[in-house]
Amino acid sequence: MTDFSLVTVWELAAPLQRVWQAIHDVDQWPLWWPYVERVTTLEAGDAGGVGAVRRLRWRTRLPYTITFDTRATLVEPPFALDAEAFGDLHGCGRWRLARQGGVTLVRYVWEVSLAKPWMARIAPLARPVFEWNHNGVMLAGGVGLARWLADQGSLASEPTYSRPG
Known about the structure:
By secondary structure, the protein is α+β, with helices and mostly antiparallel strands. The chain has one domain (3-162): Alpha-D-Glucose-1,6-Bisphosphate, Chain A, domain 4, CATH 3.30.530.20. It is built from three helices and eight strands; from the N terminus they run E-H-H-E-E-E-E-E-E-H-E. It has an eight-stranded antiparallel sheet with strand order 2-3-4-5-6-7-1-8, covered by helices on one side. The radius of gyration is 15 Å and the shape is globular.
């Protein structure tokens, strides 16, 4: 009951390359993602970014914060970025980007287990609340990215948002 598999889809009216740059540049996420409090690069990784380790501190829609490190395991510009997570959560996140019609589709799959003891204890009852929280954080990220890209002159519009399944 402490395992989660969460899927987010953003549709952004912005060029694929600009969306990729924003997602790939994790250090800049606090500029456009309201729930990202801080990103600290711990290791740079190779020339392409594989092996880069970053510590992310998130606030949430609920009254708690969560901190975890990520290690980039796959970087294939401008289509794929994978990272393993460890800390308050353990698991992996996978970004996939594609151009379809006039929009850039961003699909994020977040498969994690809760490692924070209090969260793991209440997960069987709090699962719907944790999912609601995650979905709100992700929606704010999509909206924030669309606005940031628009401010950068990338023709972004408010994203549509869906959670398949």
